[in-house]
Amino acid sequence: MFYDTLVQIYSSPDSTSYIKSLYADFQPYSKSILFVDGFQIDISNRIFCDPDTSINIDCYVVVENALYKIMDLIKWDEYFEVHLYKLKRQVQQ
Asked: In the predicted model, is pLDDT for residue 6 greater than 70?
């Protein structure tokens, strides 16, 4: 893994809720989450990064000027795998 992409972490989708920045491995990824009522979310990307207490499923991230919602967080022994949904409405920076 190459931690070569700047990732900005936010607590909400607006630019005033900035928490911190870190470097991660940003990759394309394809996965769908289907909810009971038939609603479907398509995961388009994921990041791999060092474990960090600032990252949780309530957060948003900005990667390459695009806003994503964290949909899933898998904690491995030495890193996090974070699944991202690209939001239609983007943050103003």
From this structure: yes
Residue closest to 67 by CA, chosen among 12, 5, 3, 23: 12
What's the pTM? 0.88
Question: What is d(CA 18, CA 44) in angstroms, rounded to the nearest whole number?
Answer: 23
What local confidence, expressed as pLDDT, does residue 56 receive?
96
